[in-house]
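Lab meeting tomorrow. Look over both lines:
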Amino acid sequence: MNNCDGKADATQIAQRAQAIQVEGGAQLGVGIGVIQTAVTAKYGTLSYSSKSQQLTAPPGTSMEFALVWTLEQRTGTVSEDGQSAKQALYHLFRPMDVQIQSQRDLGCVGPAASVGQPKATLEQTSTPIPTPTVPPIKAPTAIPDTPPGSVLEVGQRWTQGGLELLMESAKLSTGNIYDQIGTGIETSFRLYSRRMQDITLRYSVGNMTAQDNRGRRLKVDACLYGCGSSHWDVVTVLRSGATLGFGFIPGQENATSYVEVDTTDLSIIEVIITISDVSNISNARWRVPLAH
């Protein structure tokens, strides 16, 4: 921002808003706008997101700013009804944060520097002024790991070794009488990667455990429909900078998991759910309170 000849502060707003990118939409025979509308409807529970940062250059300065943007990316497909071969890939980007990493005055050269000085002085100056060099931008500071032994609340992320595991929701359920599954808590998780490399993950329902406030071990099912007896291993690739639903059924990464607990028992006031040994995530714990 060049404000060398300015008489007052110069300001500028750097802004990014929520955006949707679509790949291969033409083969569905609909406009990109239709696909974007469908994606927006899918994530209707998410509030519209935009982030901005005001930048200021005082009079007589030429300011350089380095900004660091943090974006959340969600990826999926839109397909034509009954035509699984016709799909379009979409990416939903939501700005989460923006920070000024560094700022400095590059200095003013040329006519703007002559304000208030005799013209002859500038004409007699022959010493070349070196071109300012721009230092390399440092990598953003890594997000610290969650302290061992922490117990998070629903909606918080466990951070460890460049991965972030979020408990998105925990909903009470009356169970499924047809598969003899009792009352309990239906949970959903989402896994984020801040690593520089893609990784392959292998996990199963055995990586999730639960106990009540009295220390009693609770049964964990891969789903609410009789999946608890299965021993499937989920094998998936988590791309660098990407996110995926964390479920225990192969091919259904957005599937929920289920903890059986007698939610009518007045002595049970909370359930602790633990995820361990998923890549380097270990002993990640969340508290689910039970009201009576």
Q: What stands out?
A: The two ends are 59 Å apart (CA to CA). The chain has two helices and 18 strands. The CA atoms of residues 114 and 122 lie 7 Å apart. Residues 112-141 have pLDDT under 50 and may be disordered.
